[in-house]
Amino acid sequence: xxxxxxxxxxxxxxxxxxxxxxxxxxxxxxxxxxxxxxxxxxxxxxxxxxxxxxxxxxxxxxxxxxxxxxxxxxxxxxxxxxxxxxxxxxxxxxxxxxxxxxxxxxxxxxxxxxxxxxxxxxxxxxxxxxxxxxxxxxxxxxxxxxxxxxxxxxxxxxxxxxxxxxxxxxxxxxxxxxxxxxxxxxxxxxxxxxxxxxxxxxxxxxxxxxxxxxxxxxxxxxxxxxxxxxxxxxxxxxxxxxxxxxxxxxxxxxxxxxxxxxxxxxxxxxxxxxxxxxxxxxxxxxxxxxxxxxxxxxxxxxxxxxxxxxxxxxxxxxxxxxxxxxxxxxxxxxxxxxxxxxxxxxxxxxxxxxxxxxxxxxxxxxxx
Length: 368
Known about the structure:
single chain; 2 strands; mainly alpha; two-stranded antiparallel sheet; A middle domain of Talin 1
């Protein structure tokens, strides 16, 4: 597909997604798509249509982000991605499986994919092309401090509370986690966008060079805002079909339960990951870090409270605590990340260390 064709498709996919949902609603019931020949064909087309709508949402977010500038632009992108992820997870929680672990598995998968797979890939690609790359330690340190705190509150602490048997939180504890998570994430956003905005900016030379690029017109921004809403509507409507079909398909194959969370994480992270890798290829590691760690932080800072609210409203417990080996891998990931982002410069060795941790995570899913 040519670049021009791809640019045109981001305006077409939102309409296709809404039309596809209308067709699926007529052909199939509210359960997983399938059964008849037409249903099987719709099930096969569901993933590319959903993925197209996700890419369209991210594209239109980036158009708006180009106008707002960094780091606010990154927030527009991560906000759209978080809405998509919440829609997918909430769809499963609203289904028949009240004790679904998809929320926990997808959040943990996002942290592993971002902090090990994506960060490692960006560092290796940048290291191969430029030997070393630089970034702002203050910005990465802020990301990691908040990310580690929220990850422990959401994924580790539920195993050790005593009000209810783990890995669950009681209602009071869930409310506390909701409030503290949102408060901490809000303070981080204030620091990122207002108080210490310079912590997350690219180098002044790069910023000055980018000032010469003509930004989108007012008409383009308004159009992208409208199509962003349509894209998110398409993703949210199709998420129920995707979640039901995903559960049915994985169950029939006897796949590991955690694989569902990984697939959801990969789906919502793919467009953002492409943007982060592209930034690393152009020696803009700071932008890669903003996109990667920003998406991981937004996942915990926004998805966990949203899932907790759904759990309280529907009176369905949500499994949060991860197992012992996942906890070890999480702690090791954060320890290596602290070393990676401690000096302000990276090389291929640190990238390969993160990729090894990601490979270990993938192995333990299929060979626990």
